[in-house]
Amino acid sequence: GDSFEGRLILMAPSGVRSLYRALMRRAKFMDSVPALKLLFENHTAPGVPARTSSSLISGSKLSRASVQLFPDDVQPAIDSFLDGRRFYVPKSMYEFVRETFRNPTSSERPLAKQLDLAFASLRCLNTIASFAQESGLITELSSVPSTADPSKVVGTNLQTASEFGPGSVLIANPALTDPTFNRAILYMLKKEDIEAKAVVFNKPTRQTLFQITNDRSLKPFDDALVFDGGPVSGILTVVYATTDAEAGMAFDNEDQEKPNFSAVVKHLMQHTKEGAARLFHGAATWVPGQLEKELEEGTWFLASAEESYKALEIPYSPDLTQTTPKKWKVETWQRHMRALGGEYALLAAAPLDLRQQMMAYLVAKEEASR
């Protein structure tokens, strides 16, 4: 067993060095294919629902009770690697392994337990490497697709940030599978003591303004494409392609007892140039402290944009005769991830069902061994 191996290593310093070097090689591999690190998730973070183990894997008689994505003995290393976050946020696994396992005697854990954790971590990384190689994901996850027209790419005016407010951009972590916000780009409209508000910037619908409002007085804008701004319904928002971040929300009917669509038309009449505004039905809102918590958990990558961001992005609207709303949403999210550069650009290639793919791989391995 591992405990016995751990005791043997105590008597063989060369074995400790071999274990450390093997861990370092695997960590270097993980850093070369960073999307694989999205497999890690901290289920013990505050506010995270407990894992269920009763659901069956599709097409299999096995359940998550008999096949786990990662065994419990490696979870302490995963939680430590994630720094208490729920989701992975770019960092070097190579440096983490170096700091955590280079000198087993420096850990607060008993030496035998630290060595057992090192063995469990190596097994975990070996399994991930086998999954990536056998599934053919390595090539897909290691490449950064080239972008189209450089003038339409936000890469020149988007960068990671630590503080947020009106004009900030929230990019959904690729590990987020929530159907409302997966692959979402959120544009912050306001941040106040009582509420923070944003609209989902990249979720077009096939509905027009007239179909949503049923108001014939909205011509000539009744055929304007409307975006799904978020789960809070009843809010109609106009965001203009201006260079003023503070002027993002030109009109918001949330505070009115009866939606005043004539006011929407009045605002749009001032911006009749094609592509000068984007309409949103619905919004995303947070109570005090909620968004800050989500940022701490790694749910969103926070970015700051230069003043030209809206002026570049709003005219870059979808032609739904050439694409689908879902495809355009994902492609826009990928553009933003690539715009952040570095490891973020590589994470843009991650499939939404990465964890499900690995679970299916583990189930197939388990069934083959029976």
Descriptive overview:
There is one protein chain. This protein is an alpha+beta fold and 370 residues long. Helices cover 38% and strands 15% of the residues. It contains 13 helices and 10 strands. The chain has helices spanning 2-10, 13-32, 75-81, 93-101, 111-135, 137-141, 209-213, 261-269, 290-297, 309-313, 325-340, 342-347, 354-368; strands spanning 158-160, 169-172, 185-191, 196-200, 204-208, 225-228, 232-240, 251-252, 277-286, 300-305. Strands 1, 2, 3, 4, 5, 6, 7, 8, 9 and 10 form a 10-stranded mixed β-sheet that branches. A hairpin with a 4-residue loop joins strand 3 and strand 4. Helix 1 crosses helix 5 (111-135) and helix 2 (13-32) runs parallel beside helix 5. The chain is elongated.
SSE layout:
Elements (H helix, E strand, L loop, with lengths): L1 H9 L2 H20 L42 H7 L11 H9 L9 H25 L1 H5 L16 E3 L8 E4 L12 E7 L4 E5 L3 E5 H5 L11 E4 L3 E9 L10 E2 L8 H9 L7 E10 L3 H8 L2 E6 L3 H5 L11 H16 L1 H6 L6 H15 L2
Parallel strand pairs: 6-9
Antiparallel strand pairs: 1-10, 2-3, 2-10, 3-4, 4-9, 5-6, 7-8, 7-9
Helix pairs in contact: 1-5, 2-4, 2-5
